[in-house]
Amino acid sequence: MKVLAISSSPRRDGNSSALAEAAVKGAVEAGHEVESVHLADYVTGMLDDCRRCRGADGACGIGDGYERLLMDHVVPADALIIATPLYWYGMNGRLKSFFDRLFCYTSGSSPVGEEVSAALQGKRVAALIACEESYRGATLGVEAQFQELTRYLHQELVGVVVGIGNSRGEVASDPSRPLERAADLGRRLFEIRVTDYRLDTPRSNRVWGSPETAAPADETY
Ligand SMILES: Cc1cc2nc3c(=O)[nH]c(=O)nc-3n(C[C@H](O)[C@H](O)[C@H](O)COP(=O)(O)O)c2cc1C
Fold this sequence. Notes:
By secondary structure, this protein is an alpha/beta fold. It has helices spanning 15-29, 50-53, 66-74, 93-106, 113-120, 140-152, 178-187, and strands spanning 2-7, 33-38, 79-85, 124-131, 156-164.
């Protein structure tokens, strides 16, 4: 499968990039075709007033590498590994701009709107967050944002790894071993079971059993 790792921190050798590298290592070990990019090489502009700045053909008028990133790297990928430092309890601004600007490329007036909207769906997404605070609430907002934006895009959020560190590379010293957890997430990107049950979802009472050993769907647990 094709995997794209997006590092969004301005610190290329910082903590979130270290998490991304670990996840990439895991995905490579699992035999996937993996590519890594730094967002700063493509995205310099922020979303503007689309009605004013898009071209006559509806194409985004911001002249940086966003379209190249989206069409050549994001669109073909089956899974995205997205790494961010925690900034003010959210994702960093450049990554937020990446998501904001999807608006322009998925709108009905964009020449690639239909293609991009279709291609974004079905991707598996792993989120990696580096931050200083170990307080659990610090990352809840950004984790919820990943959950909601993947839901909106019909994607599967397969996992979130939070690594604690502040100075460059310090995440490697986090005793909760986020680098190992990121590698594991990368390795199991396409195997991780993601459920979104509703009351009436037909299902067995066994999660991991084989179909032969599983109880009938209507059996109570
Ligand atoms: C602008 C800015 C805002 C930050 N905000 C937070 C924060 O709200 N909570 C936190 O725990 N760490 C915060 N940090 C610390 C970084 O998340 C932390 O140093 C992280 O390891 C940086 O990752 P990086 O090396 O990938 O850039 C902030 C750092 C910067 C530069």
